[in-house]
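Exam revision sheet. Question 4 asks you to relate a sequence to its structure. Input first:
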Amino acid sequence: MIDAELTALLKEPVMMVFAAKSAAGLPALGRALGARPAPDGRTIDIFTPAAQWGEALSGLAPGSPLAFTFVQPNDYRTFQLKGELISIAPSGPEDVAAAERYVAQVSLALTALGVQPQQMEHWLGRGDLATLRLAPSMAFRQTPGPHAGERLPDRGL
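Answer key, structure tokens:
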């Protein structure tokens, strides 16, 4: 279950990436343009530009392992969720609106930290969005330092 602490952090302007296996079985990475935990905390929807991160999406199917990492850019507070992909589908209007809000929010936060708009263009690319539904089974603290890689208490995961 995604608890209140992680849900609150996901509402902040955090950078988001997901890791999967490509169709060739190789590690592949994609960036996310927002995420929304389900009200019951059992799943999380992750929004990503499908064409931009096609290699990372190419090997995904329901049941595939998926890792989702989110980082607070001002202090590098980082968490990672690992679990199973439940579904992958084109994003609906509500998902697209959530992704647009995320891009606006994170753009402001990164600009305040001195990141130039041209540096963000690739990270915050748009296009047809896909929604990945992840059922996390493990959570990890990945903030740089002595506790990086530490598994968090189950929190119902």
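Marking note for examiners. The beta strands are 15-21, 27-31, 35-37, 44-49, 65-71, 78-90, 129-141, 150-151.
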